[in-house]
Amino acid sequence: MKANGSLSCRPTVRISSTAKVVFACALAVGLAFGQAQGPVKITLDQAVQMALQHNHNMLATMTTIQQAEAEETTANLRPNPSLFADWEYLPLFSSSSQNSQYLQGSTEGDLGLSYLIERGKKRQHRLRAAKDITAQTRSQVEDNARSLTFNVATDFVNVQLAESTIDLAQQDLKSFTLTVALSELSYKKGAISEDDFLKIKLQMLQFETDLQQAELAKVQGLSDLRQLLGYESVSADYDVAGPFDYMPVKGNVEDFQIKALQNRPDLRAATEGVTAAKSQYDLQKAIGKVDVTVQGNYSHVNGINAVTFYGSVPLPIFNRNQGEIARTKFAITQADEQQKFTNGQVLTDVHDAYESVRENERVVQLYRSGYLDVAEKDRDISEYSYKRGATSLLDFLDAERSYRSTQLGYRQSLASYLLAIEQLKESVGNRSIP
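Predicted structure:
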């Protein structure tokens, strides 16, 4: 059986009977079927790799590299030579002149070849400019991959949040269903009033609504994530796998900023843009150099064979390409300013992402420092006391709402913290951060 799911029943030893072959194939099919059960689960790292390999926008963007490389081929081409020929003074309506003697002695035939000699190393400058554009294009494609990775991580964490919320809603619904059943029994025994029982029963609507909303959020999150992964790359019943929990981030903002200046592809593209602008300036100056056209002719005139050589040079009186030279010089300044802006943007992105991580981490730590336990303990005490008549219904329902709100708030804060980490990774330009 092959690893990609296809089956192969080729025996590697001598088979004594057909039954053994049938049994082996049936066993292989059974094992493959058993392994194929259940939805495919993918981790965040797997999701990122799938998106980079199958996302159609990413694949379309990657073709710009091949297009730029094709431009390199075009830039490196030399001019084609020109071949021309003519045969003059051919008789049309004089039949007496249509003979070999007349054609040999009285007509003229020319055969020539001309070639444009480029001066100023134009071809070399064209190739250099094209290569610089290709390098910038590669960095721009990498930056698109960086943005795509962050979008995948965002949808992935949103699905994890929805799954965690579903788990909470199911636990709350199961617990409160038992409470409703006990309250109904108490009502039938006359221990509580009908009004109190109905108030408790009405709370079931909130728990059921929470569960439905969480399930909808997961379905929509998986659908959005599938579009980023490449719609055809995963089955409709796939799911995500991985920890949805607090993970500390070490390091200071200065270290992350240094790493970002080394890794960010958009900053690298901006720097390469300055180099490309300088190459264009050099190319335009080379284009301002006049080219020379050389030509050689072979002529047969009145029975005489002759060879003629020509040369022509345009006079750069009016057009010396001065407009393009001036434009590309200003383009260097433009690219340099854009590079400086991008450099500052990188530092700003890292600073903002780092502060977001620390702020969200403080919120998560507040929940983990004891508030989760307090909310759960308060609910358990209120439920215990209410069932024994030691506390009012309103106090019990308030404790239930506080517990649910605290648990949901913690999960949302945890998701915000994980998303802040992903934003920090994006701002640094590297998913491997301490």
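Summary: Residues 1-36 have pLDDT under 50 and may be disordered.
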